[in-house]
Design brief:
The chain has helices at residues 15-26, 46-52, 68-79, 98-108, 136-142; strands spanning 5-11, 33-40, 58-63, 84-87, 114-115, 119-120, 129-130, 155-157. The chain is α/β, with parallel strands linked by helices. It has one domain: Spore Coat Polysaccharide Biosynthesis Protein SpsA, Chain A (Alpha-Beta Complex), CATH 3.90.550. A 6-stranded mixed sheet has the order 3-2-1-4-8-5, with helices on both faces. A two-stranded antiparallel ribbon has the order 6-7.
Length: 171
């Protein structure tokens, strides 16, 4: 059965925070997902940590050569099966209702192809909240200067990128 969401997480030598990142996704209130983890030629214990999880929703793809972030994401997109793709990074954690809120938003707003959220820093001296624009016109204006979406908060419709074969640009 096709999952509602593909969680796409690239990993390169992410052992230090990987367990927390994976657990934050496995403990989501919405359970209808596949968790696609792309190991980008890690030389630490990342693969062993991933393989230690026995959740059948986890699919590990290992690249023998270093692809860097955009290449690892593109490899993951080639294997994604969900209606939506949720980005995650190996050194971040998501609140337990992230997937549920974002999927519901996209289901209720079929004309929107991508959504994201603000982020709160943790694990260091700052606990500031990074607020990104949240309205259409603000988002468009912000794009002139910076990315309006915190990458590990993005969820997008796969059918909005696949017909055009849109991928991440390494340049």
């Amino acid at each position: 059965m096709t999952p509602l969401i593909t969680i796409l997480m690239p990993v390169h030598n992410g052992a230090a925070f990987l367990t927390e990142a994976i657990n934050s996704m496995l403990n989501q209130s919405l359970k209808d997902f596949e968790f696609l983890i792309v190991d980008d030629a890690s030389t630490d214990q990342s693969v062993a940590i991933i393989q230690g999880f026995k959740d059948p929703r986890i699919r590990l793809i290992q690249s023998p050569t270093r692809l860097k972030l955009s290449g690892a994401l593109n490899l993951g997109l080639e294997h994604a099966e969900g209606r939506y793709v949720a980005r995650m990074d190996a050194d971040d954690i998501s609140l337990p209702n992230r997937l549920e809120i974002q999927a519901r938003f996209l289901e209720q707003n079929p004309g929107i192809g991508l959504c994201g959220s603000w982020i709160q820093y943790f694990g260091g001296p700052s606990t500031n909240i990074l607020k990104r624009p949240s309205h259409h016109d603000e988002i468009r204006a912000f794009m002139l200067f910076d990315t309006p979406f915190a990458h590990p908060t993005v969820m997008l419709r796969r059918d909005s990128i696949e017909p055009h074969h849109l991928r991440f640009d390494g340049d």
